[in-house]
């Protein structure tokens, strides 16, 4: 796994051993950050269920002022911390261990990226319902393409405005409406 573009382009990132983390594929990350390009400079990016941090680190590499990482898994937290240290971006990063759904609205962010473990479908609903009550400017949800019909078109004040699909992976974009 590597950083796709920006300041840390081509730098390798650690991932925890095993299959507890499912990194966002490079091609999907590239498409995501092409869409986000105009919104990244100086933003606060929240990477929930961060795993090794590849998405939040990509945001920093491309101009985000701060990335907030929410992660519960200890092996993933070790890899995330190692990646932040290796890139020397501790001053532009915050790591908050624990369950993302319980704390997601405590953080002000311009962009929220949610990528819960696919088998934990309830996490999507918990996070999106909480964010629907206290919306952020943009919420992006990564999920299997088969799961698209399980996500609601709206959660509180958030409405889905776009779906990007690549193979088995999809991104749903929600904005306040």
Task: Write the SSE topology.
Layout: H1 26-40, E1 44-48, H2 54-61, E2 66-71, H3 74-87, E3 93-97, H4 100-103, E4 111-114, H5 121-133, E5 138-144, E6 154-155, E7 158-166, E8 169-176
Parallel strand pairs: 1-2, 1-4, 2-3, 4-5
Antiparallel strand pairs: 5-8, 6-7, 7-8
Keywords for this structure?
Rossmann fold, globular
The largest sheet, given as strand count, sense and whether it forms a barrel, is: 8 strands, mixed
Overall tally of domains = 1
CATH superfamily: Vaccinia Virus protein VP39
| Corresponding CATH architecture | 3-Layer(aba) Sandwich
Average pLDDT taken over every residue: 93
Structure description:
The protein is of the alpha/beta class. The chain has a single domain (6-17, 25-176), classed as Vaccinia Virus protein VP39 (Rossmann fold, 3-Layer(aba) Sandwich), CATH 3.40.50.150. The chain has helices spanning 26-40, 54-61, 74-87, 100-103, 121-133, and strands at residues 44-48, 66-71, 93-97, 111-114, 138-144, 154-155, 158-166, 169-176. An 8-stranded mixed beta sheet has the order 3-2-1-4-5-8-7-6.
Brief account:
The protein is α/β, with parallel strands linked by helices and 177 residues long. The chain has helices spanning 26-40, 54-61, 74-87, 100-103, 121-133, and strands at residues 44-48, 66-71, 93-97, 111-114, 138-144, 154-155, 158-166, 169-176. It contains five helices and eight strands.
């Amino acid at each position: 796994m590597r950083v796709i573009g920006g300041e840390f382009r081509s730098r390798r990132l650690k991932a925890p051993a095993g299959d507890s983390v499912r990194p966002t594929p490079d091609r999907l990350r590239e498409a995501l950050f092409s869409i986000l390009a105009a919104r990244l400079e100086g933003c606060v990016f929240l990477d929930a269920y961060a795993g090794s941090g590849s998405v939040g680190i990509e945001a920093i590499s491309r101009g985000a002022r701060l990335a907030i990482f929410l992660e519960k898994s200890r092996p993933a937290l070790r890899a995330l911390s190692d990646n932040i240290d290796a890139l020397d971006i501790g001053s532009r990063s915050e790591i908050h261990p624990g369950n993302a759904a319980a704390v997601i609205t405590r953080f002000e962010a311009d962009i929220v990226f949610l990528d819960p473990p696919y088998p934990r479908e309830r996490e999507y609903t918990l996070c999106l319902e909480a964010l629907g009550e206290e919306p952020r400017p943009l919420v992006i949800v990564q999920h299997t393409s088969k799961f698209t019909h399980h996500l609601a078109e709206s959660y509180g004040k958030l409405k889905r405005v776009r779906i990007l699909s690549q193979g088995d992976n999809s991104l749903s974009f929600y904005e306040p409406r």
